[in-house]
Amino acid sequence: MSTISGESDHPLTWAEVDLGAIRHNVQAIKAHLAPQTRLIAVVKANAYGHGAVPVARAALGAGAAWLAVNRVNEGVELREAGLEARILVLGYCSPEQAATIVRHRLTPALTTLETATALVHHLEAGQPPFPVHLKIDTGMGRLGLLPEEVADFARALHDHPRLTVEGIFSHLATADEADSAYSQRQFQIFQAAVQAVEASGYEVPMKHLANSAAGMRWPEWPLGWVRLGVSMYGLYPSTAVGWPVSLRPAMTLKTRVARLRLLPAGASLGYNRTVRLKVPTPIALAPVGYGDGYPRRCSNCGWMLVRGQRVPIVGTVAMDQTMLDVSGIEAVSQHDEVVVFGRQGEAEITAEEVGAWAGTINYEIVTRMAARVPRLYLNPGI
Question: What radius of gyration do the chain's Cα atoms show?
Fold first, then answer.
């Protein structure tokens, strides 16, 4: 176990990230796919809160071929950490970022000719053609070329022969829903867009549409690449589908009992006095709150684990502290471990559950983890 960032060697609140689980999830999904399928490990947003550099290394070691980020600065962070794998920038790349993209050998998602021109401007004489990917909007309604724009855009790129279209990709809007009709429609639109690009004179070796959900549901899609996002972290894309791959959650959020008191009947708890005790009640103070990324909406409805048992949150979740009713839990003492989500003994609270209490999704629960929460990495392996 090693502390990468944060407080001292004995933090009060910390996240344990099991890199062995990351490797397991990559390998489990790879085994589910056609043998020739290659994986792009998505480590945007600090690897969904898990830590971009350690997760990237674990994913590559487990068989991922590429990395993907959303922003240029995220790709720069990986390069500065010494990672040499190909890095795709999924989000918008502006002309002003062209010099950084070229210098750090990032692969941009190209959606404007202005960015294409800027990239060419920063290429050195004699440098081989610089690879770019075209992003197509097949039905998400966000970033990307519309299907009717694709052919003209690809033809216009011939004015920039120092660029080469290495890949074309899009993103699915409803792959985590039970009804697959819209995803299949997006797949057909994507196939037509690929044909339009290739008809303009490009041979496109990389075609990627499938995210975690699609990769698990439709491994037969003949595209050759899958972008591995939320499933790499051991989280399922939704509860609407029965997922065919067994995943291991990589993150456990832990804290400690900072204070234990028996408060009298009539005492009120926390901001706005949302709880007033009817009987004397043992209250454990957990030094974790929305300043760490734990949702305030879990006030008076969420649970944590103490000594392997669920205990309810009482009162309002504050920026730095949350109160727990530990009635009936024997031998609770100050500094006892508290699991905010994850496993403790035989008991478990999942990120999905926390998301449901907070009215959100498991993605947000891990991604919103604050920088002040130290990440402790387990099973670093290779």
Answer: 24
Q: How far is CA 173 from CA 88, 108, 144, in A?
A: 20, 22, 13
> How confident is the model over 191-216, as pLDDT tens digits?
999 999 999 888 899 999 999 999 99
Contact, 337 vs 248, CB < 8 A?
no
DSSP class per residue in 273-336? G-EE-SS-EEEEEES--GGGT--GGGTTT-EEEETTEEEEEES---SS-EEEE-TT-TT--TT-
**Surface-to-core class of residue 10, CB atoms within 10 Å of its CB (0-12 exposed, 13-18 middle, 19+ buried):** exposed
Angle at alpha carbon of residue 32, lines to 349 and 16, rounded to 5°: 30
Contact 89, 107 (CB under 8 A): yes
Catalytic residues: 44, 271
Burial of 17-33, coded b for 16+ CB within 10 Å and e otherwise, reads: bbbbbbbbbbebbbebb
CA-to-CA distance for 140 and 255, rounded, in angstroms? 39
Question: Chain-centre distance of CA 198, in angstroms?
Answer: 32
**C-beta separation of 263 from 338 below 8 A:** no
Residues β-bridged to residue 21: none
Q: Cα dist. 254→18, 249, 356 in Å?
A: 13, 14, 19
Contact by Cβ (8 Å): 252, 339: yes
d(C-alpha 346, C-alpha 170), whole Å = 41
**Paired tokens of 133:** 């990917």
CA angle (257 as vertex; 256, 261 as ends), nearest 5: 175
Q: Are 49 and 366 in contact (CB under 8 A)?
A: yes
Q: Name the token pair of 303.
A: 């649970």
pLDDT bucket at 8, cuts 50 / 70 / 90? low
Share of the chain above pLDDT 90, in %: 94
The pTM assigned to this predicted structure is 0.94
